[in-house]
Structure formats: structure tokens, C-alpha cells
Amino acid sequence: MPLGGRDAGPETTLVDGKVTENWAEAVRPNTKLFFLESPTNPTLEVVDIAAVAKIANAAGARLVVDNVFATPMQQKPLELGAHVVVYSATKHIDGQGRCLGGVILSDKKWIDENLHDYFRHTGPSLSPFNAWTLLKGLETLPLRVRQQTETAAKIADFLADRPEVSRLIYPGRADHPQADLIKRQMKGGSTLLCFDLKGGKKAAFAFENALKIILISNNLGDSKSLITHPATTTHKSLTDEARAELGIDAGTLRLSVGLEDADDLLNDIEGALKAAG
Predict the structure, then answer these.
(1) Do 267 and 178 lie in a common domain?
(2) Surface-to-core class of residue 138, CB atoms within 10 Å of its CB (0-12 exposed, 13-18 middle, 19+ buried)
(3) Does residue 17 contact residue 65 with C-beta atoms inside 8 Å?
(4) Residue 27 is part of which domain span?
(5) 255 forms bridges with which residues in the sheet?
(6) 155-195 residue pLDDT tens
(7) Residue 9: is its pLDDT beyond 80?
(8) Residue 277 pLDDT > 90
(9) Is 83 in contact with 62 (CB distance < 8 Å)?
(10) Which of 128, 155, 173 is the last residue in one of the domains?
(11) What is the pLDDT confidence band of residue 123, given thresholds at 50, 70 and 90?
(12) Which of 19, 207, 254, 273 makes a 20 to 30 Å CA pair with 52?
């Protein structure tokens, strides 16, 4: 489908990415690039990167993967066949809410031919301080992600048994709809989880407002645990129908697990569930 009309820029086609066949069916003679996010925001669906990469190669297109939710610790798209990987380095790479930044990874030839001159002429480069901060963040990335993932798994197991929760999605659990693909593609679960409260928006807001440790924020991958209500924040601009198609309803919450003590977070969540009714 055209993005903003034929004169506004490149044409785009939206597909349900978790169904591999959709990618091949969407290819057109002028297809130049595939773009995907895996796991997705906020419902943590997973796309078969290796399979999509083969389709992209056959079409003569580049595959770009947003790897923020997996982090480079849990998933390596370039090894799975992706041509380009992007990160919001503000998230796990900094992971402490200190600075903004982004990362584009690919082979040197592609970087030299497509990005080098663009950056040179337009100047979208990090400040020296931000670059230093992100490099320091990389030093502790493995330790932070490992601890956050372990705590997220405990919280997911806790929420899965709560009567207030109608749906729990976590890539590290066997009940994830794509558990087999996750085992093949990822080295672990995630620092994030998604769940729906039965009481809808009212319950979700009551839950958030009752939290004492977990902060309300659209950010993720931070050393502090953060929660957001996608329907009124990150995905607010979509129609109700579009959100429903993505699996987002009024009771959906996305939790980014930080480095706080796991028991403290569980107690905080339990108290908020009681407040949400």
C-alpha cells in the first residue's frame, strides 16, 4: 500500500510477518527492502528471520531487522541471514536512561556505499559524550540482560497463574505460540513481557497507579522496571480495529523488567493486581 500517497515517498506493503508465506506473496517487481521487528512491540510475536531472509534474497531485496526487544545477547539477525540490523541504543545498550542514540549494523561494503556519504553530508552522528556513554553501557550489557531476563521469567510464571490476567505472553515460556521457533532463533527469553487484565482499561490504569516500584514510562530496556499501556501511548494513533489486529486491547500492558530485586517486583505486582480488582 502507498505510504502517504505515491508522491510522498516509497510504497510499502504491510504483512502479518509471523506468517512466512505472506512475505513471498507480498513481493512485487519494485520490492527493494524487507523490514521487520522480532520480537514485536508489544505482543512479543516472533518472525522467522532465516526464512524471511531467503525470500528477500530471492527477490533481490535487503532484509532489515529491528532487534531491540531481543537485544544482541538473545538474538543475532546477521547470523540468521539479515543484511542490516538496527537498534535504539537508548534501550538496553545504554539501559540507564542517560542518553539517546541508535545503531545500524551491516557489512562494511553496504555501510560505505549507503551510509557513509549520507552521514558525512547530513551529520546524524552521536556526540562524543553519548558515544562514550553507550560504549560504557555495552560493558555491562550481558550482565544486565541476563539478570533482567531471569527476573522477567519469574514474573511471567507468576502472572500466568493469576485470575486477574486473561493472557500472558513471554518468549521464554513453553506456552508461547511460537515456542519452537524461539528455541531455534533466540538464545533466551526476553527482558519484556506482555499481559492483559480482564478488567480492560479501568483495571489497567488502576494497576499502573497502584505500583510502588515499577514506573510508568514508554521506554524499555532500562535498569528500572517500566510499564506502559500501549492502547493509550505507543499505539494510540492506530484505530481500534488496527490495534485489535495487532493483539492489543484496552487491558493490555507491556512490562520492561529492570534490575530490582525479583521478590520486591513480585510483591509490587501482587499489590497492584489486588488494587485492579
Answers:
(1) yes
(2) middle
(3) no
(4) 20-128
(5) 193, 227
(6) 999 999 999 999 999 999 999 999 999 999 999 999 999 99
(7) no
(8) no
(9) yes
(10) 128
(11) confident
(12) 254
